Amino acid sequence: MTRSVLVTGGNRGIGLAIARELAAAGDAVAITYRTGEPPEGFFAVRCDVTSTADVDAAFEKVEAEQGPVEVVVANAGITRDTLLPMMSEEDFTEVLNTNLVGAYRVAKRAVRPMLRLRRGRIILISSVVALSGSAGQTNYSASKAGLIGFGRSLARELASRNITVNIVAPGFVETDMTKVLTEAQQEQIRKQIPMGRQAKPEEVARVVRFLASEDASYITGAVIPVDGGLGMGH
Fold first, then answer.
1. How confident is the model at residue 74 (pLDDT cuts 50, 70, 90)?
2. Active-site residue (options: 33, 104, 140, 218)
3. Does the structure show a pLDDT above 90 at 171?
4. What is the DSSP letter of 200?
């Protein structure tokens, strides 16, 4: 059965890999993007997740195109890294508003149709730094940790309605966001990873595909690391 799927921030990196993986599984996949040009092959809607009106409009367009959304992946996110003494209040609140409150807006809009269908999958993309912390990323780490508390509380609210909520926590992944680091910085991070390498976006996407599948029907409120062992012990 073809399901209607929406991936926020699905135009590059992990989001695009997730969209491709779910499309390969036979789902009708729509993506949102904030800037640039969307990739070909997907129903794409420009959407800023910091705007409730944008999120509502995106869902309406997707519903009109491919039916009520049965699987939503809240992946849209930004970074504004700097040490706390230099971090402006805007840098802190912008990251929280996009990464955490944006996921709230998306999940809230997705839930009502799922309740009517009495089925659904909500998957939140967090990060290894949600639990391990990361110097220079107090804002990002706080937003990604917030997704865990939000997701687990929502999982308890929705479990009796056959709607699962799970959190994926990627580690260091090869994306445009990590390419800006110098080779020395990347090597320093690789030394901390037991598996000694970065993840490919597809490795995160395959875990999302599993959580969205019937095989994961009895998994909810889980935090699944895809980090090569980087976050072990957290």
1. very high
2. 140
3. yes
4. P
Domain range spanning residue 24? 4-174+201-225
- Secondary structure (3-state) at 49: coil
Question: So what's the pLDDT on residue 185?
Answer: 81
CATH number of the domain residue 110 falls in = 3.40.50.720
Residue 9 in marked binding region:
yes
Task: Confirm or deny that 140 is annotated as ligand binding.
Answer: yes
Nearest to 8 by CA among 32, 44, 35, 34: 32
The verdict on whether 104 is a catalytic residue reads: no
Residue 54 domain-assigned?
A: yes
Please check the confidence at residue 152 and state whether its pLDDT lies above 90.
yes
Does the annotation flag 132 for ligand binding? no
Domain count, the chain: 1
Instruction: Please report which confidence band the pLDDT of residue 24 belongs to, taking 50, 70 and 90 as the band edges.
Output: very high
Is 206 inside a domain boundary?
A: yes
Those residues with Cβ within 8 angstroms of residue 120's Cβ, 6 or more apart along the chain or in another chain: 70, 71, 72, 110, 111, 113, 114, 158, 161, 162, 163, 164
Whether the model clears a pTM of 0.90, i.e. scores above it, the answer is: yes
C-alpha to C-alpha distances, 160 to 116, 152, 218, nearest whole angstrom? 13, 14, 11
Rounded Cα gap, residues 144 and 146, in angstroms: 5
